[in-house]
Amino acid sequence: MSIKIAIQGIKGSNHHQVVRERCSDVTELIECMSFDYLVDRLLDGTADKGIMAIENSIAGSIIPNYALVNDHNLHIIGEHYLNIHHNLMVLNGQSIEDIVEVRSHPMALLQCKDFFRQYPKIRLIEDVDTAETAKQIQENQLMGVAAIAPKVAAELYGLNIIASDIQTIKNNSTRFIIVKTKNRELPKEEINKASIRFITDHKRGSLATVLNVMSDCNLSLTKIQSLPVIEKPWKYAFFVDVTFDDYAHFDKAKSLLNIMLDDIKVLGEYKNAML
Asked: What angle do CA 186, 72, 11 make, to 5 degrees?
């Protein structure tokens, strides 16, 4: 059976690295230059699965992606944690002294800002994707230009890494989710994590009551993120990740929360990935 998977970015990007580490059954990679385009490929059936970054240990949550998952009724079927390594790469024969500008994704530039303090003459230019920048340097033989990208991009596009792991904070990890238009793929006995979205009443203690129910049902809260409900001013939706040892505990919590809340949605039930 052929599996088509959509990623944000191109081969050599961090999303591609997740495919290499996590998805051994992929037969076709669909490169998307935006998360919106990725979602469109899922909705029109071009892709079977999609991989989306959802939060970073340094930068925090990627807020728009929470909205994309909810608004388009996508289902989270898995997750993957990737250690992020930013490498400075150039055409063969170039050195750091030859570089006049560095191009990369804004987040990569931000996370490597301290490294470039020692090179004040180098301009930092924002680009759409780490790997795309590396590819352009090779295709256009751009002298004096460097990219910040994963090691695999240097391998794929024939560039030379002149500085490795230049990110300021070395322990840098991103959580990715695997999404589909259909629900869970695993049997209940293998599921030990879930993502849900709910809206509480604008009353004192309403959120605490929900969290108490989760605790009473032996669920462990691993993430909570609030987003404004656009069509309801001053109303907020909460996106929550929980883990559990027994699916029956989550089932019980769902039953209670469905009674308590008018607006609740399970975004995904899947297996907790190792950090």
From this structure: 70
Element spanning 64, H or E: helix 63-71
- Amino acid symbol at 134: A
Q: What's the predicted TM-score (pTM) here? A: 0.91
Name residue 84's amino acid.
Answer: I
**Domain at 245, CATH number:** 3.30.70.260
Q: What is the tens place of the pLDDT at every residue in 111-168?
A: 999 999 999 999 999 998 899 999 999 999 999 999 999 999 999 999 999 999 999 9
Quick check: helix, strand or coil at residue 142?
Answer: coil
- Overall number of domains in the chain: 3
Q: Give the separation between CA 192 and CA 216, rounded to whole angstroms.
A: 17
Show Cβ contacts of residue 20 under 8 Å, excluding neighbours closer than 6 positions: 152
DSSP structural state of residue 112: T
**Domain housing 260:** 188-270
